[in-house]
Design goal:
The complex is a heterodimer of chains A (344) and B (499). Chain A has 18 helices and 2 strands. Chain A has 344 residues and is mainly α. In chain A, strands 1-2 form a two-stranded antiparallel ribbon. Chain A is globular. The relative contact order of chain A is 0.10. Chain B is built from 19 helices and 13 strands. In chain B, strands 3-4-2-5-6-1-7 form a 7-stranded parallel sheet, with helices on both faces. A 6-stranded parallel sheet of chain B has the order 8-13-12-9-11-10, sandwiched between helices. In chain B, helix 2 packs parallel to helix 3, helix 14 runs antiparallel to helix 17 and helix 15 runs antiparallel to helix 17. Chain B starts with a helix and ends in an 8-residue tail after the last helix. The chains are: A mainly alpha (344), B alpha/beta (499). At the A-B interface, helix 6, helix 8, helix 9 and helix 10 of A face helix 4, helix 12 and helix 19 of B. Chain B: Keywords: ATP-binding, DNA-binding, Helicase, Hydrolase, Nucleotide-binding. Chain B: Pfam families: DEAD, Helicase_C. Chain B: InterPro entries: DEAD/DEAH_box_helicase_dom, DNA/RNA_helicase_DEAH_CS, DNA_helicase_ATP-dep_RecQ, Helicase_ATP-bd, Helicase_C-like, P-loop_NTPase.
Chain lengths: 344, 499
């Protein structure tokens, strides 16, 4: 799964970004650049789905792909997918449920809540007191304490309900995935398994295990959060879609809407004008219907669109050269942002 | 305080029917407000000595602890026992979390705090408003330059205690030579404190040192030895890679349920390995010294050292994790000629070289200030090298060029002294390996006169047959159920799956 996702990202990025871009994307880096890459290259689903990814793991996987002839290196840390690599992707069919840009934080929280809640409810059923919580993140524990105090009287009745719901939610997955999911859980008289133990048991590569599990949690999250009659709905109701902008961008955009001047916003916010430009590009990425007339003439936008088509790249430098340097990078970026839906 | 009261708290809160040796006397002192230095061997339940009094004493009990991970583990475990008025304050917390805890001090019985947090003026003034019933210095040997884990910020504890109005002090350690014990009390300004020193030797452990030709033979010996065991065992390594590598090799030889553990793993995974070992879902853990701090497993039968420990203190601490239930247990140290080179290299990397000392001072004098760790990046100092320089350069007036040479000379002298001390620790460890006589005698002689009569066999020199020992305490568990049954069992207490 990991190598499939890498190939997908690399092929969509078309060697226009370095592999570090993939690394930041999968780890969910909170930066304008990562956010824009996710949107422009249509790989936003993968945003933040592998927050614990280590750089060495990525490098190792890329090295393997290269050795197998599925990818080739270009200069400056960029990599593209070979025809053989493309072919191998088409052979792989696996349903992926990721929608990271919107939900990576919500699903991460949901995953931790569910693992901890299963441990709590199971220990209640087994009448075990005094155990170490499997998730030691503060906010998750605070949530669990509150949730527990509301329902400690009815845990025995709720356990079979949760059991049936989980069983049903596991239906679309393969036996290997089901085994992985269930073995990772701590409860009753057994502890959950580590990633390396799950890898060994399933015969799948260790770097795939977190992704398999996360993919399942995305599916479960989308099922239960849209069904208020489900038991697990209660674990998701306060978890919201990520805000469209980073909070800093949101501020700049609001100020720009008010004053209509990049320089003024930069002065108020004490930021570089180029940073404000980044934020405005973000605004167009999120809402391609947004009017860009203030930044470029209709004619200029047409010129840039034509150049993008002609060069079939999203590399700013190449586009700008094609246009003989007539337009600024900012103008090209804002038109690219506007074009996103019409591309690919 | 009525003794009967204390016993009841022990039973109700800690679910123990009796005290382990030493605990009762230390608790009595704590409740009476007597300054105390207590040396209790690893596995004797040191933390209970302040956790229990904290429930009875009217005010707040402060525990200074050197390792944040240790603090977090302790709080988790105390909370699992049902004590809720407990918290830990350290630099890993967010500002909001810190504020929340420090704003609620009055609601707490027990607070763990890192020494650097304790130095903060704001923290001190908050604590000054509270009644401090007991000031606990955990791992007190860290205050002594002669101890094996010297921490400079421990040196400032004397001042903190006095700022807090001289509350009663309880200094605790598992490993302190008589020399270090004196130094602890001197540094804390408590030379008149009551000393409760309990013997460090473990009469239920058998000590074996296997001298082996080379690395490959080590592996063969290990596999052969473990193939005769069915009991909880720990194997210590000094490198993460080796812990992983050997664990895979042991697994390939079907030697039971085996996992590895080290500080570089995912936090949930670490928690899972600990729990599996505690619940007897694992037989063998291949680990670095990061494992064990929070482990309170009573039935570990075997502790093996694959690499040579750099000091007797760490060795004693690690073998102390075996046989806490009082039953027979065995320590096995695997030694191949040249193994001392690895700890030698560690010693060099812990202290700055003479060139680094000179460069560091040039930097200080040029900038007329003590640089932060980040400032020193270009000097390529390890954290412990930096700490050494800061602690020993002291608060100099860096505008005076005249003292530059003096400071350099002093630092170099200290560096030589520290290197020599560390070398001595290693030499002591090597003496245990090379002794033609009783290993027990050699191991404990730096800490105490003599030792208790061993319950079973003593060491491989007294009883060469101890390498033939076998343990069979692990029961075969039923095979793994498939996911459906396992899922059912999580939510249904009586395993009636399929009926």
């Amino acid at each position: 799964m990991f190598t499939y996702i890498l190939l997908d990202c690399l092929s969509k990025m078309n060697a226009e970004r370095t592999v570090s871009g993939v690394y930041h994307l999968l780890r969910g880096k909170k930066s304008s650049q990562t956010f824009q890459d996710a949107k422009v290259y249509r790989i936003e689903g993968y945003y933040g789905i592998y927050p614990d990814l280590q750089r060495e793991t990525l490098d190792h996987a890329l090295h393997e792909l290269c050795k197998e002839g599925k990818t080739v290196w270009h200069d400056h840390g960029r990599m593209s997918v070979t025809a053989y690599g493309q072919g191998s992707m088409e052979e792989t069919h696996m349903p992926l449920y990721f929608s990271g840009l919107e939900y990576s934080e919500a699903v991460e929280e949901f995953k931790n809540r569910l693992m901890l809640w299963i441990q709590i409810i199971s220990n209640a059923v087994y009448r075990h007191a005094g155990y170490l919580p499997i998730v030691d993140k503060g906010p998750v524990q605070t949530w669990a304490r509150k949730f527990y105090s509301e329902r400690k009287a009815v845990l025995d009745e709720e356990a079979p309900i949760l059991y049936k719901e989980l069983r049903a939610l596991l239906t679309p997955f393969s036996d290997t995935e089901k085994e992985m999911f269930v073995r990772r859980l701590t409860g009753g008289d057994r502890s959950g398994w580590t990633y390396s133990q799950l890898a060994e048991e399933s015969g799948e590569p260790a770097w795939d295990i977190p992704l398999y599990l996360t993919n399942m949690y995305y599916y479960m999250f989308s099922e239960v959060s849209s069904d208020s009659s489900s038991y697990l709905y209660k674990l998701t109701e306060d978890l919201v879609k990520k805000e469209a902008f980073t909070s800093s961008s949101g501020k700049s955009i609001a100020l720009y809407n008010k004053f209509g001047s990049i320089e003024k916003v930069a002065k108020i916010r004490q930021l570089q004008p180029s940073t404000i430009e980044d934020h405005l590009v973000e605004a167009v990425l999120v809402d391609p219907a947004r009017n860009i007339d203030a930044f470029i003439s209709r004619e200029g936008a047409r010129d840039i669109s034509a150049a993008v088509r002609k060069t079939s790249t999203k590399r700013l430098k190449v586009i700008r050269e094609q246009l003989n340097g007539d337009y600024s990078y900012f103008q090209i970026r804002i038109v690219l942002a506007k074009l996103q839906k019409g591309q690919g | 305080m009525e003794p009967i009261n204390v016993k009841k708290v022990l039973e109700d809160q800690f679910k123990f029917s009796e005290f382990r040796p030493g605990q009762e006397n230390v608790i009595e002192n704590a409740l009476r407000g007597v300054d105390t230095l207590a040396i209790l061997p690893t596995g004797s339940g040191k933390s209970l000595c302040y956790q229990l009094p904290s429930l009875i004493l009217p005010g707040l009990t402060i525990v200074v602890s050197p390792l944040i991970s240790l603090m977090i583990d302790q709080v988790k475990q105390v909370k699992a026992k049902g004590m809720k008025r407990v918290a830990a304050l350290h630099s890993f917390l967010s500002p909001q979390q810190k504020r929340k805890i420090s704003g609620n001090l009055r609601k707490l019985d027990l607070i763990y705090i890192s020494p650097e947090m304790l130095q903060m003026p704001k923290m001190k003034s908050l604590l000054k408003r509270e009644t401090i019933s007991l000031f606990v210095v955990d791992e007190a040997h860290c205050i002594s330059q002669w101890g094996h884990e010297f921490r400079t910020d421990y040196l400032k504890l004397h001042q903190v205690i006095s700022d807090l109005g001289e509350p009663p002090v309880l200094a605790l350690s598992a490993t302190a030579t008589p020399e270090v014990q004196e130094d602890i009390l001197f540094q804390l300004g408590r030379t008149g404190a009551c000393k409760l020193i309990y013997p460090m030797d473990k009469p239920n452990i058998q000590l074996g040192v296997a001298e082996i030709e080379n690395e490959q033979e080590k592996r063969r010996f290990l596999i052969d030895f473990l193939s005769r065991q069915k009991a909880p065992a720990m194997i210590y390594f000094s490198s993460r890679q080796m812990a992983e590598k050997v664990s895979l090799e042991l697994k390939a030889n079907s030697l039971g349920r085996i996992a590895y553990y080290h500080g570089g793993m995912d936090p949930v995974d670490r928690q899972l390995v600990q729990q599996q070992f505690m619940n007897n879902e694992l037989d063998i853990v291949c680990c670095t010294s990061a494992f064990g701090m929070g482990i309170d497993k009573s039935d570990i039968r075997i502790v093996i050292h694959y690499h040579l420990p750099p000091r007797i203190e760490s060795f004693i601490q690690e073998i102390g994790r075996a046989g806490r239930d009082g039953g027979e247990c065995t320590s096995l140290l695997l030694y191949a000629p040249g193994d001392e080179r690895l700890p030698q290299m560690f010693i060099q990397s812990e202290l700055p070289s003479h060139e680094q000392i000179d460069a560091f001072l040039r930097f200080c004098y040029a900038n007329e200030k003590t640089p932060s760790y980040e400032d020193c990046m270009h000097l390529e100092l390890s954290e412990s090298q930096y700490n050494f320089l800061i602690a020993n350069a002291g608060d100099k007036d860096f505008s005076l060029q005249a003292t530059a040479r003096e400071t350099a000379d002093k630092l170099k002298e200290r560096q030589l002294l520290r290197t020599e001390q560390k070398q001595n620790h290693l030499i002591h460890m090597m003496e245990v390996i090379n002794t033609p006589g009783c290993r027990r005698k050699d191991l404990y002689r730096h800490f105490q006169e003599g030792f208790q009569t061993p319950h079973q066999k003593c060491c491989d020199h007294c009883h060469p047959e101890i390498f033939q020992v076998t343990y069979e305490s692990v029961k075969e568990r039923q095979g793994l159920p498939l996911w459906e049954e396992r899922l059912y069992n999580i939510f249904h207490a009586r395993s009636s799956y399929g009926q």
